[in-house]
Amino acid sequence: MRGNWFLMSLKFILGYILYFMLLAWVIMKLWNGLVPNLTGWSGLNYNDSLVLLVLVRLLVGFKFLGKGYLKQKFGHKWSNLSDNEREEMREKFKSRWCNKD
Questions:
Q1: DSSP string of 11-31?
Q2: Chain centroid to CA 42: how far?
Q3: How many CB atoms lie within 10 A of CB 88?
Protein backbone atom coordinates (compact mmCIF):
# COMPACT_ATOMS: atom_id res chain seq x y z
CA MET A 1 0.00 0.00 0.00
CA ARG A 2 2.78 2.43 0.88
CA GLY A 3 4.55 1.81 -2.41
CA ASN A 4 1.37 2.60 -4.26
CA TRP A 5 1.04 5.96 -2.48
CA PHE A 6 4.69 6.68 -3.15
CA LEU A 7 4.28 6.04 -6.87
CA MET A 8 1.09 8.07 -7.01
CA SER A 9 2.73 11.03 -5.27
CA LEU A 10 5.79 10.73 -7.49
CA LYS A 11 3.57 10.74 -10.59
CA PHE A 12 1.71 13.78 -9.27
CA ILE A 13 4.92 15.69 -8.58
CA LEU A 14 6.44 14.80 -11.93
CA GLY A 15 3.19 15.65 -13.69
CA TYR A 16 3.04 19.03 -12.00
CA ILE A 17 6.66 19.75 -12.96
CA LEU A 18 5.90 18.77 -16.55
CA TYR A 19 2.80 20.98 -16.49
CA PHE A 20 4.89 23.88 -15.17
CA MET A 21 7.54 23.39 -17.86
CA LEU A 22 4.93 23.16 -20.62
CA LEU A 23 3.24 26.30 -19.35
CA ALA A 24 6.57 28.16 -19.43
CA TRP A 25 7.06 27.02 -23.04
CA VAL A 26 3.57 28.25 -23.98
CA ILE A 27 4.28 31.62 -22.32
CA MET A 28 7.53 31.89 -24.28
CA LYS A 29 5.78 31.12 -27.60
CA LEU A 30 2.92 33.54 -26.92
CA TRP A 31 5.27 36.30 -25.79
CA ASN A 32 7.58 35.87 -28.78
CA GLY A 33 4.62 35.74 -31.16
CA LEU A 34 2.85 38.85 -29.89
CA VAL A 35 4.91 41.23 -27.78
CA PRO A 36 7.89 41.96 -30.08
CA ASN A 37 5.57 42.75 -32.99
CA LEU A 38 3.25 44.96 -30.94
CA THR A 39 5.72 46.81 -28.72
CA GLY A 40 9.18 46.28 -30.17
CA TRP A 41 10.43 44.64 -26.97
CA SER A 42 12.82 41.75 -27.28
CA GLY A 43 11.72 38.12 -27.20
CA LEU A 44 12.06 35.70 -24.29
CA ASN A 45 14.11 32.56 -24.06
CA TYR A 46 12.88 29.54 -22.10
CA ASN A 47 14.63 30.49 -18.85
CA ASP A 48 13.19 34.01 -18.95
CA SER A 49 9.68 32.65 -19.47
CA LEU A 50 10.16 30.25 -16.56
CA VAL A 51 11.25 33.13 -14.31
CA LEU A 52 8.29 35.20 -15.53
CA LEU A 53 5.93 32.32 -14.74
CA VAL A 54 7.35 31.95 -11.21
CA LEU A 55 7.10 35.71 -10.66
CA VAL A 56 3.47 35.80 -11.77
CA ARG A 57 2.64 32.76 -9.64
CA LEU A 58 4.22 34.42 -6.60
CA LEU A 59 2.38 37.69 -7.17
CA VAL A 60 -1.01 36.19 -8.00
CA GLY A 61 -0.80 33.11 -5.81
CA PHE A 62 -0.50 29.41 -6.40
CA LYS A 63 -3.91 28.03 -7.25
CA PHE A 64 -3.65 24.28 -7.63
CA LEU A 65 -5.78 22.71 -10.33
CA GLY A 66 -9.25 24.00 -9.71
CA LYS A 67 -9.12 24.22 -5.94
CA GLY A 68 -11.44 27.22 -5.91
CA TYR A 69 -13.97 25.54 -8.20
CA LEU A 70 -14.16 22.39 -6.08
CA LYS A 71 -14.41 24.37 -2.87
CA GLN A 72 -17.23 26.45 -4.30
CA LYS A 73 -19.08 23.47 -5.78
CA PHE A 74 -18.89 21.08 -2.84
CA GLY A 75 -18.62 23.55 0.04
CA HIS A 76 -22.18 24.73 -0.46
CA LYS A 77 -23.49 21.17 -0.70
CA TRP A 78 -21.59 20.08 2.41
CA SER A 79 -22.86 23.02 4.48
CA ASN A 80 -26.49 22.10 3.69
CA LEU A 81 -26.19 18.47 4.83
CA SER A 82 -27.51 17.28 8.17
CA ASP A 83 -25.18 15.57 10.65
CA ASN A 84 -26.46 12.12 9.66
CA GLU A 85 -25.94 12.82 5.96
CA ARG A 86 -22.42 14.08 6.64
CA GLU A 87 -21.58 10.93 8.57
CA GLU A 88 -22.94 8.79 5.70
CA MET A 89 -20.79 10.74 3.23
CA ARG A 90 -17.70 10.27 5.43
CA GLU A 91 -18.33 6.53 5.65
CA LYS A 92 -18.86 6.31 1.89
CA PHE A 93 -15.60 8.17 1.32
CA LYS A 94 -13.69 5.98 3.78
CA SER A 95 -15.03 2.77 2.28
CA ARG A 96 -14.14 3.92 -1.22
CA TRP A 97 -10.74 5.55 -0.73
CA CYS A 98 -9.29 4.44 2.61
CA ASN A 99 -8.22 1.15 4.20
CA LYS A 100 -7.59 -0.72 0.97
CA ASP A 101 -4.99 -3.40 1.72
A1: HHHHHHHHHHHHHHHHHHHHH
A2: 30
A3: 12
Helix (H, G, I), strand (E, B) or coil at 32: helix
Residues of the chain with pLDDT > 90, as a percent, come to 21
Helices 46-60 and 2-39, packing angle to 10 deg: 110
Cα 35–chain centre separation: 27
- What residues contact residue 20 under an 8 Å CB cut-off, 6+ apart? 53
What does 54-99 look like in DSSP terms, one character per residue? Answer: HHHHHHH----TTHHHHHHHHHHHHHTS-HHHHHHHHHHHHHHHS-
Amino acid sitting at position 94: K
Model confidence pLDDT, tens digit, residues 26-76? 999 999 999 898 888 888 899 999 888 888 888 877 665 555 666 676 777
Long-range pairs for 22-25: beta carbons < 8 A, 24 or more residues apart: 23/53, 24/49, 24/50, 24/52, 24/53, 25/49
pTM higher than the cut 0.90: no
